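We now fix the convention by which a protein and its fold are recorded. The integers have meaning only within a learned vocabulary of local backbone shapes. A record is reproduced here so that you can trace the correspondence yourselves:
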Amino acid sequence: MFKKTRRQFLATAGKAAALTGIASLSGSALSAKPTEKVFVHHVYFWLNNPDSQEDKAKLIEGLQTLAKTAKTIRQHHIGLPSTTNREVIDRSYQVSWLLFFKNKADQDIYQTDPAHLAFIKNCAALWQKVIVYDAEDI
């Protein structure tokens, strides 16, 4: 029977562990599914009364209801301007609404979804300006 020194054992074990890790990584990399593409819809709202906490709360409540009821929204995020302050940052809006859809077709369906139309009807009087940025994965 071959007897190894402690140093030889550790060297052999280290090489085996490294090879196993490389094989494991390459196997998982090969089997990993490509990231699904999404359609991003980002809306910025400027309120008629930008200092009104009540109006902001009404708009946020309307967005939360919309998020629960519109069928094609995959993910959403409601945000307020950050306190970051650099020349390239626009913090003039009051609320942002970030949506993720499976594709453009789902976003098109969302535009005519009764929940979206009800949100516009119920909340449009709160805002003076809305800007939308849509983006599709490459």
Remarks:
- The chain has four helices and four strands.
